[in-house]
């Protein structure tokens, strides 16, 4: 996995770490990639590598047999099972201006979540949305696993 | 997480060779787990047809579709969670690490006692191959708020400069100052307090 990371580093520097994004807009980091993980950013499809930054509105998609682990700027931790699609619909972490919120859209597959600072500072501002129901969270660890359609 | 994994037997390698294939999962599962260091947790599962609260760990709410009310929360066996989601939970990254570096009075000089802390920060960045680090400068309440904002920023920059020498290319190092507004120890104005002269570093 490490070898693959190095091999794709140059590619990531060219397209994954888009310098057009201001640093403060970074929502989090892809910390682990097993297999093939795609980050959909607007019209771009980027192959995720460890250390790659993610932004609000990015969609992370794991292919068959692949997994991903992410850590958001507020310390929120996420992992994705194979065949999972998750969108970082809203990520606001600006405690100084009281702007706090996290909305994740799990569109397919299974994800685990451990709360971070946003949950501590604004307990009612966290939602995991899915096609079948919405999960409102107060400081917790959960698994959401969608049934097959 | 650690606590949870300890609760679950590592049974993956001991399973019988012949196993009935798991039936395809038709319903969606919302599972509340115990969270380390934070016992109070709760969640509510809601859709167009109803809502169900969960306020205890190892409870699951099952949902058929958006037009069918979520079923009431029922217990789920930790061993079943491990069997179906052990690999998912294992893929959660380790928690971000926080460090505090203390500074000499009215200076942007790292105190000698805090040098080992800097060494630990640099080691954490290397070991985690961290590409996201936040550096927050703080001061005590000696002097006015404006100059303390500037001093906080100077302190943060001193630590950030060391971090940049080891951080991977493309890493985001966020450097901010909270000045005297976010003390570790609450004091009155114009109080010389060593514990408030610090830089916080969060390594993700």
N-to-C span of chain A: 32 Å
Q: Classify the secondary structure makeup of chain A into a structural class.
A: mainly beta
Portion of residues in helices of chain B? 25-40%
What is the string of SSEs of chain A from the N terminus onward? Answer: HEEEEEEEEEEHEEE
Total helices of chain A: the number is 2
| Beta-strand percentage range of chain A | over 45%
Shape of chain B: elongated
Structural class of chain B: alpha+beta
User: How much is the average pLDDT of chain A?
Assistant: 86
Biggest sheet character of chain B: 4 strands, mixed
Largest sheet of chain A: 7 strands, mixed
**Looking at the chains present, what oligomeric state does this protein adopt?**
heterodimer
Mean pLDDT of chain B comes to: 88
The beta-strand count of chain B equals 9
Q: Unreliable runs of chain B, pLDDT <50, ≥5 residues?
A: 1-14
Short description:
The complex is a heterodimer of chains A (about 150) and B (about 200). Chain A has about 150 residues and is mainly beta.
